[in-house]
Amino acid sequence: MSGSTLGNSFRIMTWGESHGAGVGVVIDGCPAGLALSEADIQQFLNRRKPGQSRFATPRKESDCVEILSGVFEGITTGTPIALMVRNENQISKHYDDLASLYRPGHADFTFDRKFLHRDYRGGGRSSGRETIGRVAAGAIASKLLAELGIDILTFTKSIGPVEVPASAYCFDEITGNPLYMPSAEYARKAEAYLDELRMQQNSSGGSIECIVRNMPIGIGEPVFDKLDACLAKALMSIGAVKAVEVGDGAAVSTTTGIENNDAFTTADGKIVKNTNHSGGILGGMSDGSDLLLKVAVKPTPSISQVQQTVTKDGMPAELSIHGRHDPVIVPRAVVVVESMVALTLIDLLFENMSSRFDKIKQFYSEETS
Amino acid sequence: MSGSTLGNSFRIMTWGESHGAGVGVVIDGCPAGLALSEADIQQFLNRRKPGQSRFATPRKESDCVEILSGVFEGITTGTPIALMVRNENQISKHYDDLASLYRPGHADFTFDRKFLHRDYRGGGRSSGRETIGRVAAGAIASKLLAELGIDILTFTKSIGPVEVPASAYCFDEITGNPLYMPSAEYARKAEAYLDELRMQQNSSGGSIECIVRNMPIGIGEPVFDKLDACLAKALMSIGAVKAVEVGDGAAVSTTTGIENNDAFTTADGKIVKNTNHSGGILGGMSDGSDLLLKVAVKPTPSISQVQQTVTKDGMPAELSIHGRHDPVIVPRAVVVVESMVALTLIDLLFENMSSRFDKIKQFYSEETS
Amino acid sequence: MSGSTLGNSFRIMTWGESHGAGVGVVIDGCPAGLALSEADIQQFLNRRKPGQSRFATPRKESDCVEILSGVFEGITTGTPIALMVRNENQISKHYDDLASLYRPGHADFTFDRKFLHRDYRGGGRSSGRETIGRVAAGAIASKLLAELGIDILTFTKSIGPVEVPASAYCFDEITGNPLYMPSAEYARKAEAYLDELRMQQNSSGGSIECIVRNMPIGIGEPVFDKLDACLAKALMSIGAVKAVEVGDGAAVSTTTGIENNDAFTTADGKIVKNTNHSGGILGGMSDGSDLLLKVAVKPTPSISQVQQTVTKDGMPAELSIHGRHDPVIVPRAVVVVESMVALTLIDLLFENMSSRFDKIKQFYSEETS
Amino acid sequence: MSGSTLGNSFRIMTWGESHGAGVGVVIDGCPAGLALSEADIQQFLNRRKPGQSRFATPRKESDCVEILSGVFEGITTGTPIALMVRNENQISKHYDDLASLYRPGHADFTFDRKFLHRDYRGGGRSSGRETIGRVAAGAIASKLLAELGIDILTFTKSIGPVEVPASAYCFDEITGNPLYMPSAEYARKAEAYLDELRMQQNSSGGSIECIVRNMPIGIGEPVFDKLDACLAKALMSIGAVKAVEVGDGAAVSTTTGIENNDAFTTADGKIVKNTNHSGGILGGMSDGSDLLLKVAVKPTPSISQVQQTVTKDGMPAELSIHGRHDPVIVPRAVVVVESMVALTLIDLLFENMSSRFDKIKQFYSEETS
């Protein structure tokens, strides 16, 4: 099957390994008529670029994207858009000893068992660099959404025990700290926590929140392709994500119907909900309230602390991962989460266009007139 | 697009509304050679059937399944298997007043906005009866898994504040109580809690846990079709599910790398993990440990307590839902969760067969010899 | 994989065997808001119904269709539409001797080798009755097309050596003869030819032509999902079809560029082609001229003349197929061809809606305003 | 939708325009363990490379392929294989005047109407260079088939009126002439015919035949994904193809049942057919005989003879296409046909692996033991 393909109407296929020639993506289904430049994409990629703070690996990678097709005179043509980032700064020797060792928390073991032959250098296909293709495509999806008036806000909700309460959210501060937290104050606490862990050669988990504003109503398909179902798949497909929550999420298990139901009322002549426990989704379709999503991100598995493991042959071995790794994945994953949400929304927005026959008739009557 | 289709190699398409002629499913991709009877499917359907305890709606529905195609002389033929359950006991008048009202927590509003024209009777396509198709197909997927030696255990982890700690799990007791809890003692506590809520005309949320044992290693595709990603979509597509967790789930956000990494070791000459924080999945592929999944289920939105809402035209209205509804969705959802997991696993097991060329060559060499 | 699923935005899944409980189809992706009754579908099914002339099997089958879901108060709801036709008049004993024999020109042998276990009664899944699901879904696709102003005309082009030249086409006469030929005169000649063959216990091949008028321009996707490519797959998937031609078809191999190119000009202020060698498709997209399609249909393989064959075990055997079979497949296949074309066009018309971003923006601006 | 994606288990996505940065393909679903080098692919690409004879455009293009991912130490890893060919020798000025003119027989008009904004340089996405991605992927599919013992033979059947009769086939001579005809003698006749047409500034159509030997039995799925249906789509998706025939093809329309049925018999203890009118396919599944396929290719639409056309604004215009074009497409299309067949067969071979449960059980019992 095709594990590197996502989406239907807006379909992407990503490729590339950490230490191969490069990484990239092809987008099949981007409509014609969008103004698009490499700068639009680069700006998104830079948000996941390493080496920007002491909380991200000091690896210097320019990660410059090249548009290879699908754009003519600065406008998309409706044909596949191929994007590529050449790999640089590959120090494979750091990884040579990993050819025969299975790193705990990594995919070395499962890749080996599934495919027998794997590119072990830097994690190969399971490296964080795999997300470059997602983010490059996500930049295009985000630009399409922006032009439709849909706005996605993504930020670090927590790092280890340091969680920003909703009451303290100050969205202007998100880009003001290297951790992308909506609070400079909590960001400082989190930085202190991370400094401590780094001294212990350890790493931290965290969580990311995503808020989508101004969604049209009715996006998402009933039953299996529900909006929340498609978002859950997209978000859980991010390597380190272990939990996905919508609206009140896990908390609904301890609540009651009268508390959890969002009452309908009207505002400015429109039907709205008094509350948003549902997180903007009812019956798998957007209900007009903000989409509220949250994911839990596991700690960076690559730590320099000594760990017990085995070789390919099952011989016991000790492992201490040197090289350069993030003490926490969360900050660089923020833009990956935003990209996966954007890719999912655009795909479902396009799917939705054939839901009602009156709209289809109108579409083609204009077309033919 | 096709919101009622799930899977690729083992593909199902469900159909049917609460008060239409019936509900059903077609399975396209079930291999030939499986012994299959209506009893195999009925047994699964009975686990979601209402009227079995005071914690489920007293509606009496026989929900008898009919195999319409794909089985000849008790054996599957490899052609599509069509399954149908006729609707009975439909008291539409209960719902006539709901034609113009939007029930809080239900899909009435979003269905109306997406499609303009909806079958409002009993929730139509968004009724719990929609899951009959899932469970009927899930019964077949489960039988295939069982013959492959893969075993799925699903149960109620919590109802409201009453949560069974893993230390108290007694799996033999699951079928011994109407709530499918792995502890008779906690089940009694939960029943008391539900009785109280019912007197308040209220309902409760809860959570369901699923454990899959004896998974082959390497199932799931890297990147977008990861095992956990596909499971997350399948589980989040269940109407009332608001959170999906794998392994330690949301808890990973507050843990550290050294705590969260599962060390590799050997046992009986096989490479295994010392712990299972990962929930049996590394890099999106099964790692040989048990799969550990958990979902949060929201409280039944249909409560007889008076709620504020609006009419289709936005006029304020008061709503008190009578008719017959479960005080908690969880017990009947247990088999739905198990079905969605089974459907996802079978699909990925089939996909996985073309991952390695040595296995493909072996397959066809036998074929042609 | 899923051999019984067709389409993407307008997806159908068919099911059923010749002598099972019935045959049917589920349509996932039909938009909401189409007026639809069982009569709309029955009328289409009747065009393929046997027993209507001496050139079709005298089997009497009522083939009454039942709408099981997706339609409420006579209007489609946007949810899956399940359609079923119960099987009747099944005289399985006619086929008992075929359990162990491979009929020449039939799928008995290949089904046996692929699946090992097959429903041999009346050809099981490879029976002509499999097309009932296609035609039932095709009736809905055709109604959607008609409301979009797109008109499909399908007829018998030739039976054996009797071919109606385009110069003799009189479309009013198509329904006036049992062979659906656009010429009463040629129909009489073809009937005489068929009478002769029947006396010889033999059967005849033929060809079917399909003309689609008033197609919007630009339908079909460049590269792999070209309009002609999708039509070719849909048409070649009809059991007896062995060739598919578009426009001048096979004749282009002996022509030259200057002859084959259709010059552009203008008429009524619109850009049109002077000729239509292309058959209404350029670069895989509709060009505004009529779509011109032609398929070749092989002779009915079931003949009562004695044939040489083998048993499952490879033992030589003589076969003389009795029971009731059409001396020619073509007339009953006309509506199947029309259905496959309609299903393909609707799917591509829906896909096309997300080709241009200006149209998408317009769609959602209306949506949200 | 995604017009540049083909296949399911072995999925490819192609990209690139004639005068953009390059053209390429990503293959998602190639199994791990295949030895693969750039030379394997280059050798295939060279068969479609221009400038090799006076019957192909003298454009000199090196068309050097680069493997960007999915191969490690010369062996495929099971992850996506990205292949790229940089564009060179782009003389865009040749095409500047075509920005506003619609070339007869080309996709300029339909691209413009579908997408509004198009890359007109050299036909952009509809250029023959689009097939480079197909052929690069086809080279991999062909290598997989070869290792499974399946052999594809493709050649020029006819050019204009010069058709090689089957009786004259000498397959050793195919590569001995620039037209890839299975007869040096007929190739000379065809060359003479082409020289004449070139002097008339005209071009010729032709036909291509493809024979697949040693197919396993039962490949292809019943109903919609029949082997012949999938092949028809793949072949009709080649820009210039206007007809696809299987086995006796269009000729079946004038034959009778007793003539067209292939009698079964046994040879070397295997069940075989006495004849092969079916072209190796019964009921949409391979029947063990050679696959016999034929396509009709239209004449090169780019001719320097003066043609009538219109501008984008509908103004009448005269067009004489200079620049460098093939007098016939057929010879360079031979490897494209072979590639499309190979891609389709591999995809269906992989799909077929989950058809029988006994084989699946065997697969996983080996896996887990």
UniProtKB/TrEMBL annotation, chains A, B, C, D:
FMN binds at R125, S126, S127, G283, K298, P299, T300, P301, S302, R324. InterPro entries: Chorismate_synth, Chorismate_synth_AroC_sf, Chorismate_synthase_CS. NADP(+) binds at R48, R54. One of its GO terms (molecular function) is FMN binding. GO terms for biological process: amino acid biosynthetic process; aromatic amino acid family biosynthetic process; chorismate biosynthetic process. The keyword NADP applies. PANTHER family: CHORISMATE SYNTHASE (PTHR21085:SF0). Its EC number is 4.2.3.5. Homotetramer. It catalyses: 5-O-(1-carboxyvinyl)-3-phosphoshikimate = chorismate + phosphate. Its cofactor is FMNH2. This reaction introduces a second double bond into the aromatic ring system. This is Chorismate synthase. Reduced FMN (FMNH(2)). Keywords: Amino-acid biosynthesis, Aromatic amino acid biosynthesis, FAD, Flavoprotein, FMN, Lyase, NADP. One of its GO terms (cellular component) is cytosol. Belongs to the chorismate synthase family.
